[in-house]
Amino acid sequence: MKCLKCGRPAVFHMRHHKLALCEIHYPEWFVKQTERAIQKYRMFDPGARVLIAVSGGKDSLALWDVLMGLGYAVHGLYIDLGIDWRHKGGIDYSSVSREKVVQFAATRPEARFTVVDVAAEYGESMPQAAQRIRRGRDKPCSICGLIKRHVMNRVARDGDYDVLVTGHNLDDEAAALFGNVLHWKTGYLARQAPVLPAQGEGLVRKAKPFCRLYERETAAYTLIAGIDYVYAECPYAIGATSLRYKETLSQMEHQAPGTKLQFYLGFLRARKEAFFRERAEGVTLTPCHNCGQPSSAPDLCAFCRLWER
Ligand code: Q46
Ligand code: ZN
Ligand code: ZN
């Protein structure tokens, strides 16, 4: 197969776009697509101060790379959750991931980042807090998500960033959408969007510049750009429902290329309808008495309650 732009051998073929590109034109296309999404959804302006949550995985490192290349003032944030599975014959997942972030930044002089070590700052790692609260019952992911959201918002607010960006790709968004539709989580559906505006003083603006790009596409970019990342999934992700949804959607995508993209873009069009909008506007948030972050509870936010118990 040949590159549609220059006729040289193509390295990557996108069936859903009927497009094959070479190693020069593929990264160019990828960067353009990201820039277009930022503009189309008015995620942030060229002069914005951007905080990017980096996990050491391919998506967030690719996004960091692309945003720096586009000239944005972007600062990394790595949250060390303390996920260590050596006692179960696995890897010290958080340390390995952190090392990938350090290595990435070391090869790019303009890359700056902050590390928040959850155990050092709050007295317990994420798995320890989850163990205390849930006593080993099911996965710690809901507590992990709560901690990550709180820390990201705190760092973004304290550092006066205009926007917080994450590396969520189309596969992530389509799987989340699938789950939200399957269980008719209308509140979540209302808040699932490429960009979420800031809410009052408390909740910082959030954006997902890769929301229209397939996971395969971000993987191809990291490969061509020579970005090394943590290949392993988080050990707690094994057996997660979101992975099952991804598999189901990938099967459908295989039979009908473009399924995931149509599913997601169709949702974004439907989202403009009043039903979802009303749900989005229906929640009132007040500042937490302890940390000041917005909360739907009257006194302490869910994060502060976590450490109270
Ligand atoms: S890091 Fe945390 Fe994920 Fe691991 S514990 Fe679950 S939520 S799976 S993105
Ligand atoms: Zn080419
Ligand atoms: Zn709080």
Could you say which structural class the secondary elements and strand pairing correspond to? alpha/beta
Order of helices and strands: EEHEHEHEHHHEHHEEHHHHEEH
- Which molecules are bound besides the chains? Fe4 H S5, zinc ion
Radius of gyration: 20 Å
Total count of domains: 1
How much β-strand is present in the residues?
Answer: 5-15%
Please provide the count of β strands: 10
CATH T-level fold name: Rossmann fold
- CATH class, named Alpha Beta
Outline type: globular
Return the average pLDDT rounded to an integer: 94
The profile of the biggest β sheet is:
6 strands, mixed
Whole-Å distance between the termini? 60 Å
Number of helices: 13
Specify the CATH homologous superfamily. Answer: HUPs
Give a structural overview.
Strands 5-4-3-6-8-7 form a six-stranded mixed beta sheet, sandwiched between helices. It has a two-stranded antiparallel ribbon with strand order 1-2. About 50% of the residues lie in helices and about 10% in strands. Helix 2 packs across helix 9. The protein has one domain: 3-Layer(aba) Sandwich (Rossmann fold). The chain contains 13 helices and ten strands. The radius of gyration is 20 Å and the shape is globular. The N and C termini lie far apart (about 60 Å). With about 300 residues, the protein is α/β, with parallel strands linked by helices. Helix 3 links the parallel strand 4 and strand 5.
